[in-house]
Every structure is written in structure tokens, then in C-alpha cells.
Amino acid sequence: MSPRRPAPLAAEAARRARFEALFRQVYQPLQSYAARRVAAEAVDDVVADTLLVLWRRLEDVPAEMALPWAYGVARRCVANARRGVVRRGQLVERLSAQPVTLEPDAADDPSGLQAALASMSDDDRELIRLWAWEQLQPREIAVVLGISANAVSIRLHRAKRELAERATGKDRAAGKDRAAGKDRAAGGHTGVGHTKEAP
What we know:
By secondary structure, this protein is mostly helical. It is built from nine helices and no strands. The chain folds into two domains: 8-96, Orthogonal Bundle (Rna Polymerase Sigma Factor, Chain: A); 105-181, Winged helix-like DNA-binding domain superfamily/Winged helix DNA-binding domain (Arc Repressor Mutant, subunit A, Orthogonal Bundle), CATH 1.10.10. It is globular, with a radius of gyration of 23 Å. Helices cover 66% and strands 0% of the residues. The model is unreliable at 95-106 and 182-199 (pLDDT under 50).
């Protein structure tokens, strides 16, 4: 009988207990995260792949940032799922002369917010989603994206301003104003300023 046997068993039990606690913390948020980014039939696969990575790298999961860390893993799993969809759909894509873009119905999107969000870059769109949908703070978003909290604050401020401009059409109006020349401002034109937003 080996005296060393109980130690590995105790360590394994402690590891399993930690994972179960982590599972309870992140499972539902991960379901919501995936549901907003992939088709319904792919949600469970993304969550399962994320949880598998969490189990394998359990020792790397920061105790105070477990959910943002899990979102970071899920983000990569979503990217993998999308690549899989692209590979499976290559034949369909070859049959199409060009991808079809479905424009949101104005009646369904009266504020223009969805259309504005869809027109942004993938990185800015994900930044807005993490802030608005997942309700993460910049320091938590930094963990998800693997960048500094300061960089997140700067990029988030710019992305929110860009989203507001796109949703209201101010970016197009500003472009026309620039094309016509800034001398109109001297003639009494009053520009609309942006209020400072807290990141």
C-alpha cells in the first residue's frame, strides 16, 4: 500500500470542486455570449469547447477575473465555429456571385442602431458588445481582448462615439460639411459637440 496515493486523489478532488464552482459561475453567461454571436445550433458546441479549455487550463484561470477570462476563450471558440461554417458553406458561396447583405428594416430598427453596429469594424463591434451586452468594465474587457485597460478605454470611447454618429447619420453630415469647407462655421453654423463619456 503506497502512502502517496491519497495526495493525488485529494488534489484531483480539489481541482474538480474548483471547476464545478467555475462552471456554475460562467455557464449561463457563456450561453448568452455565444447565443448573441453564433447560430442557435452552434451555441452548445461553443460553450462546450470553452468549458473544455477551462478544464484543461484551470490553473491559469484568474480567480478574480474568471468570467472575462472565460469570455476570452469563448471569443476564440466563436471564431473557430465561424470558420467551420465558412468551410462547410464554401460550395454555396461559390454559387453566389457576391455575398448578400441583408439590410435591417427601418421599421424594425427605427433608431438605426443595428445598421450602425453592423457597419462598424469587427473589433469595434465586439468592443461595443462586450460593454453593452456583457456589461463588462474596461479592465474586464482588457482580459477578454488581451490588451491594456487604458487601450480599452480609449478604443471604447471612440467606438461609442462612432456608433452614435453612424446611428444618427452625423458621420455623413460631417463628411458633407467638410467637403463644402469649414468656412461655413464662420457664417453662423453651429456644430454639435459630443459630451464626454465615461469609459
